[in-house]
Amino acid sequence: MKQNKKGKYFKYAIGEIILVVIGILIALQINNWNENRKLQQREVQILKEIKSDLYQTKKDIERAVTMHKEVLVTNKYVLDAIHLKIPYSDSIYGGFADASQEFEIVPKTSGFENLKTIGLNTISNDSLRIAISNIFQLRFTRLQNDMRSKGTEFNIQSMLFPHQDKYFEVDFSKARKIPRKYSDTLKMFSLKIRNYDDFLKDTELFKFLQLTTIIRSSIVEDEMEVVGEIDQVIESIDQELKRKN
């Protein structure tokens, strides 16, 4: 009888141990599932933030490209005016004034900065993680480096400013009022091109206008390539989000 009782107690103890082990394993499994769910929720959130940043940056680039293209049209008009010796008009002055315009792009990077803070491995998809890192750390950095060249001898404004300074003068016959909300209305005079005959004969000016036109056209090409890369990354993010949902 004692042996039977011991056998029953032993079996009971083994059963208890098994139940405890099973309970621990289930608890660990639930804990792991909760942790994985939290990680996935964090990944989804950061991907949505990055997608929003990419979309906003894309819109900024497209806006800059549109303005660049408008300037390219006026550049062509000024070049034709010089080449064909077209009589002076305000349109020629306006085109020459616009020729030095540059348009700053500031990529939106808050989502990627958050990703770097919590860890790049938060994004489980290796190819997507690499694509996101490349566009923020390489392509966008290149855009910012292009902006830092402002003021150098290879910059559009630096090339054209000496010629604009040479030929622009105040046109006292054309005054205009600029209303201000918090200060007095301003009275400003327009500018015009002086010595227009010399302007038409200035081959150095013509050379720089052509050069800056080529540079601006190349900027448009580069920026549109970045837009294409942004679209690819956004599409990859959408596919990843769809898979996780």
Can you walk me through this structure?
The longest helix has 83 residues. The chain has one domain. The protein has a two-stranded antiparallel ribbon. By secondary structure, it is mainly alpha-helical. The protein has 7 helices and 2 strands, in the order αααααββαα. The mean pLDDT is 87. Helix 1 packs antiparallel against helix 3, helix 1 runs antiparallel to helix 7 and helix 4 runs antiparallel to helix 7. It holds the Pfam family DUF6090. InterPro entries: DUF6090.
Quaternary state of the chains: single chain
* Uncertain residue segments: none
Radius of gyration, whole Å:
33 Å
- Topology, number of strands: 2
- SSE topology string: HHHHHEEHH
Helix content: over 70%
Biggest sheet: strands, sense, closure? 2 strands, antiparallel
Classification by helices and strands: mainly alpha
* Portion in strands: 5-15%
Protein name: DUF6090 family protein
Keywords: Membrane, Transmembrane, Transmembrane helix
Transmembrane segments: 12-30
Pfam families: DUF6090 (PF19578)
Give the key terms.
mainly alpha; two-stranded antiparallel sheet; 75% helix; 8% strand
How are the SSEs placed, and which strands pair?
Blueprint lengths: L1 H83 L5 H9 L11 H9 L7 H23 L7 H12 E11 L7 E8 L2 H6 L1 H42 L1
Antiparallel strand pairs: 1-2
What is the gist of this entry?
Helix 5 packs antiparallel against helix 7. It is elongated, with a radius of gyration of 33 Å. It is 75% helix and 8% strand.
